[in-house]
């Protein structure tokens, strides 16, 4: 739904502006005194370019990128060995989790709330002509469309059974490829994709470590609540988190390299790696 809405909005902007092909190719950065319409059109162009870049980035991957992908695959497979046990533990303890937390997780990761929150962020940035807010919103829009398309296709193509299907005799290793049934749309987690995409994009705007921790903590509410609700396996959430981080970093790097927005200084990137230690497997972020 959110993807259709965003694309419809983009097409509407293009239609009402009556743009020519040359205007679309013109990506010159407008001045601070430019009209709101000019700024909005510029942001739309950057969003489209960011989406195009993120989808074509795998064509330019280097050895380290494939190494990262390989590490991710191995880590996911290793994590999947405890999917059934971890899910049973989460579901068993759902009754101890406050309803407020569960409700907040469901809302935070929903497309409707996600779109409204980002629309409010972008609207504020546009009216106030605040470039940092506009840039953040463009980063969120470009990344969420990319991750949204990927996770939607993956859900249907992979057709993994959800944890709640355990009552029907199914487990984490049961699949129904190219299924249109919601109960077989577990991998990856859509709520996680949306919440982590926004959290990571917003966290990038802060240099303070504690601010980042606060943002990521809010972004983790939806993924964790989905585990307690029995809607997803641990690897569904892990894979969605990895996808979101990679895409946001790619789009952010593109906007930086093309000087699309003001980056006074290059922010320190967070290094994400899978950690293997004894009988523990985890995703570790180094600030």
UniProtKB/TrEMBL annotation:
Superkingdom of origin: Bacteria
Domain (Phosphatidic acid phosphatase type 2/haloperoxidase): residue spans on this chain: 140-252
Residues in the signal sequence: 1-20
Keywords assigned: Signal
Xref: InterPro entries: PAP2/HPO, PAP2/HPO_sf
Protein's name in the database: Phosphatase PAP2 family protein
Source organism of the structure: Algibacter miyuki
């Amino acid at each position: 739904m959110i993807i259709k809405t965003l694309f419809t909005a983009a097409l509407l902007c293009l239609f009402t502006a009556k743009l020519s092909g040359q205007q679309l190719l013109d990506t010159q950065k407008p001045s601070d005194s430019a009209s709101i319409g000019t700024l909005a059109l510029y942001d739309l162009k950057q969003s489209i370019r960011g989406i195009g870049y993120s989808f074509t980035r795998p064509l330019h991957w280097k050895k380290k990128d494939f190494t990262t992908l390989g590490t991710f695959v191995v880590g996911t497979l290793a994590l999947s060995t405890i999917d059934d046990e971890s899910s049973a533990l989460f579901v068993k303890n759902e009754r101890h989790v406050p309803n407020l937390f569960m409700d907040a997780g469901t809302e935070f990761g929903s497309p409707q709330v996600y779109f409204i929150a980002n629309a409010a962020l972008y609207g504020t940035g546009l009216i106030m002509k605040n470039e940092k807010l506009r840039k953040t919103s463009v980063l969120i829009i470009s990344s969420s469309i990319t991750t949204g398309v990927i996770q939607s296709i993956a859900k249907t193509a992979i057709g993994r059974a959800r944890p709640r299907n355990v009552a029907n005799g199914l487990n984490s290793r049961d699949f129904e490829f190219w299924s249109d049934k919601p109960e077989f749309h577990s991998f990856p987690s859509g709520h996680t994709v949306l919440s982590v995409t926004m959290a990571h994009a917003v966290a990038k705007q802060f240099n303070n470590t504690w601010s980042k921790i606060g943002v990521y903590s809010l972004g983790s509410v939806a993924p964790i609540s989905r585990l307690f609700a029995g809607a997803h396996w641990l690897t569904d959430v892990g894979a969605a988190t990895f996808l979101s981080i990679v895409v946001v970093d790619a789009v952010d790097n593109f906007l930086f390299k093309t000087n699309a927005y003001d980056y006074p200084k290059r922010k320190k990137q967070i290094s994400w790696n899978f950690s293997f230690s004894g009988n523990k497997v985890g995703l570790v972020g180094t600030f």
